[in-house]
Design brief:
Blueprint (H helix, E strand, L loop, with lengths): L1 H5 L14 H5 L4 H14 L30 E2 L48 E3 L5 E20 L6 E9 L8 E7 L13 E22 L5 E3 L1 E8 H9 L6 H5 L14 H7 L3 H27 L1
Parallel strand pairs: 1-5
Antiparallel strand pairs: 2-7, 3-6, 3-8, 4-5, 4-6
Length: about 300
Amino acid sequence: MRILLLFGADMDVENAHNETPRSLLAAYDPMKADVFLRLVDEYANRPRQIPLYADHDEDDDILIEVGHSDRGPLLAPNSAVSMEVTSLLDNEQHWTRILDSYSSGYMEMNPHTNLLDGDPFSFWVSPLSRNAWVAFNFERKYTITGIRIYGWNSEQMIRTLQVQISRAGIDGPYVTVATCLCERLGGDDPSDPAEPQDFHGFRETSRYWRLLIQDGHGGRYLCFQGVEFYGYDREVWNFFKNLELEAYALSFINLGFNKLCFISLINDEDIAEVIDDEEKAKILSVALAERHQKGISILIGATIR
């Protein structure tokens, strides 16, 4: 069990019977269960080791060793590659914060939180010319298959950007899953709107993500306007998987239902567009109705309290 915990065993993962390691331990003799629970507490805040070799699956396995020199695939902007996910996630401002764990620093009035504000005229300005970084805590596991960088035609524009993930927490350690070569595009005036450039060709799942900017285009500091992510909340995939409808999950995700909170917005027209099997369409309709009813019950309960 020590080895499993050392490599990041999740005590809250459910099996096919909706059981977790914690719930199974509850059925053990208390003295025996206590031994396991003390081990869980012991490893709770330790950095997770990442296996050098693993079988890459739908979930979180990764093939890169901590500290490995691998830069992941080298990606050029707007290249014609097959896109698994075509929908961008709506940014949430709380994914990054004004805390030391979330950024290498910023110049006054231009914090890294500007990257998520959707404003094409705001910037993150780093005082560094190399190895600046910004970290994101998505608060749940997200599968990311691409990023969109908003930049400009300036020597301060970022150039070599590494997309990284951590299994352990916001403080890392991080490993690189892709390297993006950002270009100088758009206007050279800060009052010009930002120019987007897309990067596809990787796929990873994690709660913690980081952008490491290794260098820029020759300026004394680094500066760009924003970032967005192509991907989806893993709970969306799990929702369809639990209904044995995972074959349709990606189609709904690419219609924009890429976060769990959007699932309830799926209507009959959306279902008809994606699913031509009447029985399977009914399974989804019933599940959505039950989910909607459960949401109403929770709302009523909260109002009464």
